[in-house]
Amino acid sequence: MELPEQALAGGMDAARGVVRVGDTVRRPGMRAGVKELLLHLERVGFVGAPRYLGTDEKDRHVVSWVDGDVPVPPYPEWAMTETALVSLGRLLREYHEAVASFSPVAADWSTEWADPHGGPTVCHNDLYPENVVFRDGVVVALIDFDMAGPGRPLWDLAIAASEWAPLHAPSARPAAQQGLDAVRRVGLLAAAYGLAADRAEDLLDIVLEERAHSTQNILKQAAAGDPVWVAHVNEPGFAERTAADLDWLDAQRAALQSSTGMPASGESAAEGRGRPTR
């Protein structure tokens, strides 16, 4: 009996033709580098990513379906808890440790959102809440590696901090993220990841780099006529929100740097310093 195909919504662009079939996900295209990455993660025993399973009769790439809950905007409360944030930091650390031994042959990585400086680690580069899987309120897997590419590990952590803390001016945040203590939350994320206190300033510098790169890319794609980004740029207040974010980050820099040098809630300072660093 042939299993039905279910189009995947949420963070997925429907035009990409990504569908679920039973316990698998089928993709019309996949970069050779992403295939190598998923196979490497399986070899080293990293369980927080889909498994690459080959191709099907329609020449689509097949990966395993990761069971759980995936939040989509507007993000539900269970996706924005401190427990969720800490679990993301820990899983991101585990991913970076797993990929540290990866030596890809392919070089066809996406460059759209990747670290323009490159780096030693194949980063995920798309760490929005809709690209992770939850079970019982805890992040258990990263999905959708289409934007993966070489970069500095802190590039991934900067993206995660920006979108999960979130590092946006309160006036620029969606309703679901109003009331979140972003300064405290970025500290929790950094501690869970194992960021050394003396790398706090580096992280904040890379947050600003990533924000500028992302904004430039959005404007470039909008100028090229991409309908998604044209609509985004034409939303009322786009430029004002972008400027407000930068002003807020500047005003909060000292507090953010102090926060990222502190241990996670319930952990002693000695324990925090004992974590591995990057």
Summed up, the helix count is: 8
Q: Tally of extended strands?
A: 9
Q: How are the strands ordered across the major sheet?
A: 1-2-3-5-4
Total domain count: 2
The oligomeric state of the chains shown is single chain
Structural class: alpha+beta
Largest sheet entry: 5 strands, antiparallel
Shape: globular
Distance between the termini: 50 Å
CATH level-four homologous superfamily name of the largest domain: Aminoglycoside phosphotransferase (APH), C-terminal lobe
- Give the overall average pLDDT: 91
The amount of helix comes to 40-55%
Q: What fraction of residues sit in β-strands?
A: 5-15%
The CATH topology label of the largest domain is Aminoglycoside 3'-phosphotransferase, Chain: A, domain 2
Q: What order do the SSEs take from the amino end to the carboxyl end, as H and E? A: EEEHEEHEEEEHHHHHH
Q: Runs with pLDDT <50, length 5+?
A: 263-278
Any idea what the CATH architecture of the largest domain is? Alpha-Beta Complex
Rg measurement, Å: 19 Å
CATH class of the largest domain: Alpha Beta
Brief overview:
This is Aminoglycoside phosphotransferase domain-containing protein. With 278 residues, this protein is an alpha+beta fold.
Fold and architecture overview:
There is one protein chain. 36% of the residues are buried. Strand 7 and strand 8 (138-142) form a beta hairpin. The chain folds into 2 domains: 5-64; 77-273, Aminoglycoside phosphotransferase (APH), C-terminal lobe (Aminoglycoside 3'-phosphotransferase, Chain: A, domain 2, Alpha-Beta Complex), CATH 3.90.1200. It has a 5-stranded antiparallel β-sheet with strand order 1-2-3-5-4. Helix 2 runs antiparallel to helix 3, helix 2 (82-99) runs parallel beside helix 4 and helix 3 packs across helix 5. It has helices at residues 32-43, 82-99, 153-164, 182-193, 200-223, 227-233, 238-259, 269-273, and strands at 5-7, 19-21, 24-27, 52-55, 61-64, 121-123, 132-135, 138-142, 149-151. The chain has 278 residues and is an alpha+beta fold.
